[in-house]
Every structure is written in structure tokens, then in C-alpha cells.
Amino acid sequence: MTEALLLALSASLAWGVADFVGPWQGRTLGPLRVLLWAQVGGIALLGIVIAARGHGPHDWAVLWAVLAALSGTLGLYAYYRGMATGTMAVVAPIAGASAIVPVVFGIATGDRPSPVQLAGIASAIVGVALAAREQQADGRRIAAGAGLALLAAIGFGFYFPPMHAAGAADPWWSSFIFRLTAGVIVLTAVLLRRPAIRLGGWPLAIVLAVGCSDTLGNLLFAASSSRGIVSLTSVLASLYPIITVALAAVVIKERVGGIQLLGVVLTLLGVGLISA
């Protein structure tokens, strides 16, 4: 179980970095252009590994990754759009509330976390929710981009159960199938919307690295799926908003209000309890 939790936490770290750098670049380059080249980076990375392994999947349960990609990619697009209209420190934690979906799913299908771990799950979810609150002169309110962030949370939430099933069968192939499906979805959106997609130099290198980091997160979560229950691994993997908020505060000097700081503390407390 400890290995599963470490893998899930590592996934949240990889996703947290990608979910800061990607939307940050998307504010100037456009979300679809960034998403498209990020998929190219992820597909190339996994394609090399899959070719080196030299064999196909042993279990067709990896095809659950197609469903995960449909939900996760739609959530990611909503997330990028939300980041363009709101502050990262607000949008990212709301999207992190996606942890609610796999927890409910896991308990409904037989997962039995301990009381301490359940307390940790509750603390993490409450922490994420509090971090989504924005303090204004006229009182608390839901911040700009919150609606899109909520759509992202739904999309991300329904990513976890099917990806957990696919990853338990084969983390490498499930991640590759996920990335291929996501690439087709984004390419379809690009063909329909026809945004500018040309990119070169350092911006291209950065966006390709975003895709590799996001893909690493997918792979780490898929690997955790064969070692832990969905309700715990999914909550820990959903802690990426802490990384995103911290990077936004340090790199682009976004201000984090007191209520959001409390949310971060409660989320970290949840991590400790879940890992107990």
C-alpha cells in the first residue's frame, strides 16, 4: 500500500507542474495549441517505450483508458479555459475536488478505507474546497473561472475509475492508449476550431515537456492502480493543486488568501492521515 501511495503522490507532483506550466503558456499561445503539442510530446515519449518493450497488452481491460481519455481530456480543456479567465490559485483547487468522484465510486464498489484514512480523505476534500474560496472586500464568493473549473473537476473525477481499471491491467499500454485517444480528441477540436497551431523554438520545447510531465503523471497513477484501492490513490493523485498554487505564487506572484492557505494546510493534513 505504501508504494501505491508514493506513486499516487508522485503523479500529483507531475500533474501539478504540468497544470501550472501548460495553462500559463496557454494564456498567450492558446489552449488548443498547447494541448495539441503536449499530446505530441506525450505520445512520442510513450511510443518509444512501447516500441522498446516489444509486446502488446496482455489484458484488454487496458481499453478502459479510452473512456478515461474522453472524460479526462474534456476536463483538461475546461481546466485550461478556466485558467485563462481566472487565477490559477483558485481554479486549480476547484478542479482538485475531482477526488470526490473516485472516493464515492470506490466505497460503492467495495473499498474499505480505515477510519483514519477516511478522516484524511474528508480533510483533503474540505481543504481543496476551502482553497477554492476567494476573499473579496464584500465577503467570500466563488471566483472567476469557477464554473469551468467545476466542469474540469467532473471530467477529472470520471477519469480516475476507468484509468484505475486500465492501469491495473497494464500501466504502460493503458497510458499509451489514453494518450493516443486524447490526441485524437484534441486534433478533432483543432480541425473544427482551426486555431493557430504552429510553434517552434523554446515555446515548443516547453509545451512538449508539459506533455511529457502530464504523461508521467498518467503513468504513475496507472502504476499505483495495481497496488492500492481507487479511493485512496485517486485522492492522493488529486493533490496536484497544491503544486500548481505554490508555483503560481512563486513564479507569477499570484496572491493566496487566508482561507486558501487554510485549505492547503487541511489538504496536507489529509495526505498525512491517508498515508497512515
Low-confidence stretches: none
- DSSP strand count: 2
Q: Could you estimate the helical fraction of the residues in percent?
A: over 70%
Largest sheet: 2 strands, antiparallel
Strand content: under 5%
The tally of helices reads 13
Give helix and strand order, one letter per element, not per position.
HHHHHHEEHHHHHHH
The rounded distance between the terminal residues' Cα atoms is 10 Å
Would you tell me the overall average pLDDT?
83
Number of structural units classed as domains: 1
Label the structural class: mainly alpha
Shape: globular
Radius of gyration: 18 Å
Description:
This protein has one domain. Helix 1 crosses helix 2 and helix 1 crosses helix 3. It has 276 residues and is mainly α. A hairpin with a 2-residue loop joins strand 1 and strand 2. The chain contains 13 helices and two strands; from the N terminus they run H-H-H-H-H-H-E-E-H-H-H-H-H-H-H. The protein has a two-stranded antiparallel sheet.
Secondary-structure blueprint of this entry?
Blueprint: H1 2-29, H2 31-53, H3 64-85, H4 88-96, H5 100-108, H6 115-131, E1 133-136, E2 139-142, H7 146-157, H8 160-169, H9 171-193, H10 201-224, H11 230-237, H12 240-251, H13 258-274
Antiparallel strand pairs: 1-2
Helix pairs in contact: 1-2, 1-3, 1-10, 1-11, 1-12, 2-9, 2-10, 3-7, 3-8, 3-9, 4-6, 4-7, 4-12, 5-11, 6-13, 8-9, 8-10, 9-10
Could you give a short description of this structure?
With 276 residues, the protein is mainly α. Helix content is 78%, strand content 3%.
